[in-house]
Specification:
Elements (H helix, E strand, L loop, with lengths): L1 E9 L5 H11 L20 H6 L6 E7 L2 E7 L7 H8 L4 E7 L6 H12 L4 E6 L8 H12 L3 E3 L7 H5 L3 H10 L4 H9 L4 E5 L8 H10 L11 E9 L5 E9 L1 E3 L3 E6 L2 E6 L2 E6 L2 E5 L1 E3 L3 E5 L9 E3 L13 E6 L6 H14 L6 E3 L4 E6 L2 H15 L4 E2 L3 E2 L2 E4 L3 E7 L6 E9 L6 E5 L8 H12 L15 E10 L6 H18 L2 E14 L4 H10 L3 E2 L3 E3 L2 E9 H4 L2 H8 L5 E11 L3 H8 L13 E5 L2 E5 L10 E4 L4 E4 L20 H11 L2 H14 L17 E6 H5 L3 H9 L1 H19 L2 E6 L10 E5 L2 E5 L6 H12 L4 E5 L3 H9 L3 E3 L1 H25 L6 H6 L1
Parallel strand pairs: 1-3, 1-4, 4-5, 5-7, 6-7, 26-27, 37-38, 37-41, 38-40, 41-42
Antiparallel strand pairs: 2-3, 8-9, 8-17, 9-16, 10-15, 11-12, 13-14, 13-16, 18-20, 18-21, 18-22, 19-20, 23-28, 24-25, 25-27, 28-31, 28-32, 29-31, 30-31, 33-34, 35-36, 39-40
Helix pairs in contact: 12-13, 21-22, 22-25
């Protein structure tokens, strides 16, 4: 039999669920017609769906008619649940779009039409509610032609208008001119290619025109052709009443059996898991099967790493959905509620609806979710209460702003701490509204290899880049990689990540930025005596209105307005129209903010204080890195670009005396300099604030992770580098092969230790036998590294430093040199043997792993590894 996956889409209250009931009844799947107003429909089985009379979750039912097996997917029509509907589109073979015979093409209907075009889904049209007064085909036909375009042809007649159909395609027209008819094969092809949209008229409630629609779908549809290799498209994740995680998917190639091993990639890591069982759902009930074949829709238990939109086997990923939330709400928990536990529970809901985009706001210590509207908030309240037994409330919804640029600029990013190197030049150009972020490379492969170029493209795409006005995500920008530079020895992948991010931010600082906010298209139907009040309200909302239209006994106002202003206007409409006025909102997209200066002032964002998104670059001279502000970066860049000739060439950067680091002879750290290091970079205020924030995220600890004893002095750890290397077996083995590699390994280990404990770490290495060597100090990530001058050993340097600073700082020295231990004890410093330090390091590593495991359970927003290790 032919296998077809068929979806039903409509504006809210268009009659989707009623049409589904009629199809199931006429094909013998159900024995009695359910009704939305009677709260007994076959597919709307969730309590809130029956109470409100709307579809919230897409449901499936399987039925047969003629030689065709249908998997019917009923999708939500309310705009608040548009994302659930869009996720379903990716698995449809054909769709039924319902148009109201009484209302005509409504706002959300046009959105659905655009999405059907985007996903290239062949579509049949059912004009519903034709039994209502003042409905006629002529009005509906003209209304659809104006709003949806050509290709919609009445198929409810005994014989379709072949001449009108033939106008859709040249080859069809030639055939019609020769034969005065068109074959079913030609009609199937036109429907498949979305050149023809058969239209049927009727009433789903009164079961009129439904069978003609079904027969037309059977007659004018093809069965898709599938690959023999296994492929599947994941479109939804749910949990059943027993808590089992279900992956809803369509098999798009080959077959899938129980106990088969399925492979995939999630968060950049490959996984392989076995299928425990396969379910074919129809309404609330399901049947267990051993095998599903290409074209079938099923729910699979046993796969724990899947996500909506994922392609398995030979199937590709689905592109990002068009419809995204525009409001952000804070989740307000009852007293005594464990925020970590609730967050993990909410992650289950985020799996089912990825657009919730669960976030932890460190500044306010709140969980935030993104939604489409207030009805979705009510759903979340119900779900959280029913599933987890928690009564939550939500704060006031906040608008999700975005930023873009109005002019073309070049952004430069350079990242060159010691033994690292990368430089990136990007051209930032304004994109078309709604285009999002696009990018390409025009860099010369002779100057920058293709591998590095591809890596830069990856870094551009891997995150949301923040704007410089309010820190909102940027959009509608086209990035072009025009030049870059790598070092043969020192460049690593992470260096280009840093250089790319900095190039984006430096370009944004140079550009003319503008704040964007979301807008709704609105359709407001009210009585004529209320038009003045409505037009005044919409004007005060900064709405843009078209001339009023008379539609029946009402006046219709159309236009668009900011979501922030018109989002809850329906409440006022209900009040002054006594419940007779209707407001329909359709997401329009982002446009310039109507009150930009006010929003920027309220946000209070300072791009220069956003340390996670630096605008400047890091350069290196005399063995030390130094920071260059964004407006001075171009004076130091190593590559010069000529946009007119599309060429780039190396230049010798000019280092000014004001920013140039100290000369080598001046690099010894004095008391004042060490004090500056402690207070500026690792001061007690910063550590205290970090610990307070961490305690608001993680469960409260019984005692601090790192406890100080004695006077409340800043802590400093001096490490005798080579002594430790030859005392720790792992490093000693490495040093036998490559002493430089062992030294770098130790510095990386010390970096982790410093980042977690907050102790300033200074690693000292002998340069005792190096002729004419001058004392040098540089920074390896967050660790200070000292190479002593000629004829000065590490123990002499450490002894001198402890003598100078012991009264001001709590100093510990890690070494196994017995004489050195005696000297430092005499200076009042604490000693730690190499083995004791190794045990301390292992303890810290274990605690870091514990926090990172907890972070992975809670989600990436809580604390990143960089945040944890860098304080």
């Amino acid at each position: 039999m032919k296998q077809i996956t068929l979806g039903i889409l409509a504006h809210v209250d268009g009659g989707k669920t009623t049409l589904s009931e009629s199809l199931l009844y006429n094909t013998g799947k159900i024995k009695a017609l359910g009704r939305v107003d009677h709260k007994n429909t076959y597919l709307d089985n969730f309590s809130m769906e029956r109470e409100r009379g709307i579809t919230i979750f897409s449901k499936q039912a399987v039925f047969e008619y003629g030689d065709t097996t249908f998997t019917l997917l009923d999708t939500p029509g309310h705009v608040d649940f548009s994302t659930e509907m869009e996720r379903t589109l990716q698995v449809l073979d054909y769709a039924i779009l319902i148009v109201s015979g009484s209302e005509g093409v409504q706002g959300h209907t046009e959105t659905l039409w655009k999405l059907l075009r985007k996903y290239e889904i062949p579509t049949f049209i059912f004009v519903n509610k034709m039994d209502m007064p003042r409905t006629n085909k002529e009005f509906s036909s003209e209304n659809m032609r104006v709003c949806l375009g050509d290709g919609i042809v009445d198929f409810s007649l005994e014989k379709p208008d072949y001449e009108q159909i033939a106008m859709c395609d040249e080859q069809a027209l030639e055939y019609y001119m020769e034969h005065d008819t068109l074959t079913d094969e030609i009609l199937c092809s036109l429907v498949q290619n979305r050149q023809l949209f058969p239209c049927y008229y009727g009433s789903a409630l009164n079961n009129k025109g439904v069978m003609e629609l079904l027969e037309g779908i059977c007659r004018y549809s093809y069965e898709p052709v599938y690959s023999d290799d296994f492929g599947a498209k994941v479109y939804k994740i749910t949990k059943d009443s027993a808590g089992n995680r279900l992956t809803h998917m369509k098999i798009t190639g080959g077959s899938l059996n129980v106990r088969d091993e399925v492979k995939g990639i999630s968060n950049g890591e490959e996984w392989a898991q076995k299928v425990n069982d396969i379910r074919i759902y129809s309404g609330e009930k399901y049947s267990l099967v051993q095998t599903v074949n290409a074209g079938e829709i099923c729910a699979v238990a046993g796969l724990e790493e899947t996500y909506s939109g994922q392609g398995l086997g030979c199937e590709s990923e689905t592109e990002e959905p068009d419809l995204k939330p525009v409001l952000s709400y804070s989740v307000l928990l009852p007293k005594g509620c464990n925020v970590n536990q609730v967050y993990q529970q909410l992650k289950e809901l985020e799996e089912e609806d990825p657009t919730l985009n669960l976030r932890w706001n460190e500044e306010t210590s709140e969980i935030h979710v993104r939604v489409m509207g207030p009805i979705q908030i009510e759903l979340l309240k119900t779900q959280i209460q029913e599933r987890f037994g928690i009564e939550v409330s939500f704060g006031t919804g906040k608008i999700l702003y975005k930023e873009t640029i109005l002019n073309t600029v070049e952004g430069v990013g350079h990242f060159e701490p010691l033994r690292h190197y990368a430089e990136v030049h990007l051209l930032l150009e304004p994109g078309e509204p709604g285009s999002g972020i696009t990018f390409e490379s025009k860099a010369d492969s002779n100057s920058l290899s293709r591998n590095w170029q591809r890596l830069i493209m990856t870094h551009l795409a891997e995150r949301e880049h923040r704007g410089v006005l309010t820190g909102a995500p940027v959009t509608d920008i086209h990035f072009t990689l025009i030049a870059g530079k790598a070092h043969l020895k020192h460049t690593e992948g992470g260096d280009f990540r840093q250089a790319t991010y900095r190039a984006v931010r430096q370009g944004l600082k140079k550009a003319e930025s503008v704040l964007l906010e979301p807008y709704y298209d609105f359709v407001l139907d009210i009585s004529s005596e209320q038009v003045g009040r409505a037009m005044t309200d919409l004007g005060n909302m900064n709405g843009h209105m078209n001339p009023p239209q008379i539609v029946g006994e009402k006046t219709r106002l159309t236009g668009y307005a900011p979501v922030s202003e018109i989002g809850d206007y329906q409440i006022q409409v209900n009040e002054y129209s006594h419940g007779k006025g209707t407001l329909t909102l359709k997401y329009k997209g982002y446009a310039p903010c109507h009150n930009q200066e006010q929003v920027i002032e309220e946000k209070g964002y300072d791009s220069e204080k956003d340390m996670r998104n630096p605008t400047g670059s890091v350069f290196c001279t005399h063995g030390a890195g130094f920071y260059v502000p964004w407006d001075e970066v171009e004076q130091y860049m190593h590559v010069k670009t000529d946009l007119k000739s599309n060429q780039s060439f190396d230049v010798v950067p000019k280092i000014s005396e004001e920013i140039r680091p100290k000369k080598e002879k001046d690099t010894y750290a004095t008391d004042q300099e060490l004090m500056a290091i402690f207070e500026k970079t690792f001061g007690p205020v910063r550590r205290k604030r970090y610990q307070e924030k961490r305690s608001s995220v993680y469960e409260k600890q019984k005692k601090p992770v790192y406890r100080k004893k004695g006077p409340n002095l800043p802590s400093c750890l001096l490490v005798d580098g080579y002594n430790i290397i030859f005392a720790w077996e792992e490093l000693k083995t490495l040093a036998a092969k490559n002493i430089d590699a062992a030294r770098d390994k130790l510095l990386d280990m010390l970096s982790n230790y410093q980042g977690y404990t907050g102790t300033t770490v200074i690693a000292v290495f002998d340069a005792y036998n190096v002729k004419r060597h001058k004392e040098t100090i540089y920074r390896h990530q967050n660790v200070y590294v000292v190479f002593t001058k000629e004829a000065e050993s590490a123990d002499i340097y450490i002894a001198k430093t402890t003598h100078q600073l012991a009264s001001k700082y709590k100093i510990t020295v890690a070494t196994s040199d017995a004489l050195e231990q005696l000297i430092i004890m005499g200076h009042g410093a604490l000693r730690m043997s190499a083995m004791n330090f190794y045990e301390e390091y292992q303890r810290v590593e274990k605690e870091i792993s514990g926090y990172l495991n907890q972070k992975n359970q809670l989600g990436n927003y809580v604390v990143s590894e960089d945040e944890l290790l860098n304080g």
